[in-house]
Amino acid sequence: MLGEFALIKEFFSGHDKGRGITLGIGDDCALLAPDRNSELAITTDTLNEGIHFFKGEDPFYLGYKSLLVNISDLASMGARPAFFTLSLTLPDSDELFLREFSRGLFSLADKEKMALIGGNTSKGPLSITISAYGYVAKGCAMRRDLAKPGDIIYVSGNLGMGGLFVKAGYHELNLASDLFSIVHKKAQLIPSRTVFARALRRVCRCALDVSDGTVGDLRHILERSNVGAVLNLDKLPLDEIFDQVNLTALEKVELAAFGGCDYELLFTVNPKKISLLEKIAACHRVKITPIGVITKDKNLNLLFENKPYVKANRPFEHF
Amino acid sequence: MLGEFALIKEFFSGHDKGRGITLGIGDDCALLAPDRNSELAITTDTLNEGIHFFKGEDPFYLGYKSLLVNISDLASMGARPAFFTLSLTLPDSDELFLREFSRGLFSLADKEKMALIGGNTSKGPLSITISAYGYVAKGCAMRRDLAKPGDIIYVSGNLGMGGLFVKAGYHELNLASDLFSIVHKKAQLIPSRTVFARALRRVCRCALDVSDGTVGDLRHILERSNVGAVLNLDKLPLDEIFDQVNLTALEKVELAAFGGCDYELLFTVNPKKISLLEKIAACHRVKITPIGVITKDKNLNLLFENKPYVKANRPFEHF
């Protein structure tokens, strides 16, 4: 069985070179000479076994998704990913797990040209905390507090896959095993939106990523921007796989509205900039869907097939 | 019971202002405009219940120490602490715990003028991961790879309290309850060495903090600097409280040599700079003790009362 330092060397070293990195793994701190003309965007997220992922999750998927959820926060600011740290708590030094976990992690890190500059490993119930860092030109970050009345609300990609996977994983819904495998993979190997997000800054000042559920996350924008919105739930885009799922139209929409863990971009755009937005999206081959509008009136009005949607709903919170 | 967002607002908000912080808590990322003439030092450490601290640990102590172990890494590079993020996993939203934990945390953060710029809370077994950030003038960081043959090895403060507390906590040693309380407090409310460490850079190029045990940590310096050392174990400085502890001289020394969790600075200084070092230490009222010398020969020779110390030893590792 590998010791702590051997484990780090075997599975996590050699990925710590990059622009501005003066000192990588192996000292008390990493040292960075940050970009002079950029702001540094910093985010951190934790995944705990049994809470954020099912016990026995495929370690490749887990490595990928642990980084993806953090990269998604960088994307939502329009930041270019640069580096990350990893704090890994493991019940034991399982080499097979570590090999697959690190393969999944670096498959995404390498694609995003992110260096792993430090971290720690310790013993305990499986838990992964990553802090991720990116650069964004000064004053150009997309922020939650910059939505304006009249802005059109858009979402990238499709919604509901995160919610569908969790529902099926808890056996609240029965999916054929081959269908479940596809849902599982799609819910874990989520494409990152970093490249599209950086282009999006040309037409967008306000964005976030859908992690707690579309409606709950939209509420964060409304509160921070001191505005309201009309949201057309029936416009929420669903993956074509939903055609094979035995749920009513409303149930599908509810997964897209409240399910969370989709890691798509929710953003607002001034109507004058829509044609440019559409060109950018086409150029990056990213599907975008208008789903509502920001209003001066501070309420959030949810519509389903042009009628008010009134069911109680609450964004995901841990406590 | 407080929800996740209310919990963050109640106990962890309002500490996110500081020099260079463009955007604090509440968005997907924090945004920083880093110091132009400095390097950014980054470190991250995790404390897990039952591994890094005993179940039922005083939450004030825990808040303090979670940050201290990270600040200690900044100190060992000679960096000025600037800000941190907190990832907190809790079994439930216990307000009494959170009040005391955050009091302990901010008692140290405020003293060090550190802003809390972001983080997350989630449900699960109690675990705390902090990433801490500091600034150090370009090229001036103290590093593990810069020890030179002939350098004198020093340690700040006293050693062994971390090891003594763990031994007593596991009932491998019986301490009277009032004595145990003092040991407990001293092992948790460890003074930070950040101010002394920044002054130390005038005379020192190589330092780290004693977290895994003096001998194990010295080995990190030797490996990275490609040198050896002679270490006089009987010179390791002990707190006066050890006079009241029923252990042999050798047993006490072994706690100081292999116990870990002391978070003092272990550093090497060119003999020509000793008189300046002594002035700096006196000026900062920090006790320093010469405990050995760096050698060209790459072995680590441990001496106890001028004789080789031969007992098998291994630095603390999690696996």
Automatic annotation (TrEMBL), chains A, B:
Matching CDD domains = ThiL
Q: Does the keyword NADP apply?
A: no
**Can you tell me which residues bind Mg(2+) 4?**
28, 43, 73
Q: Where is the PurM-like N-terminal domain?
A: 26-136
Q: Does the keyword Cytoplasm apply?
A: no
Give residues annotated as binding Mg(2+) 2.
45, 73
- Gene Ontology molecular functions: ATP binding; magnesium ion binding; thiamine-phosphate kinase activity
Q: Which residues form the PurM-like C-terminal domain?
A: 148-302
Any other comment in the entry? Answer: Reaction mechanism of ThiL seems to utilize a direct, inline transfer of the gamma-phosphate of ATP to TMP rather than a phosphorylated enzyme intermediate.
Under PANTHER family, the record lists: THIAMINE-MONOPHOSPHATE KINASE (PTHR30270:SF0)
Q: What is this protein called?
A: Thiamine-monophosphate kinase
* Species in which this protein is naturally found: Succinatimonas hippei (strain DSM 22608 / JCM 16073 / KCTC 15190 / YIT 12066)
Task: Please name the gene that encodes this protein.
Answer: thiL
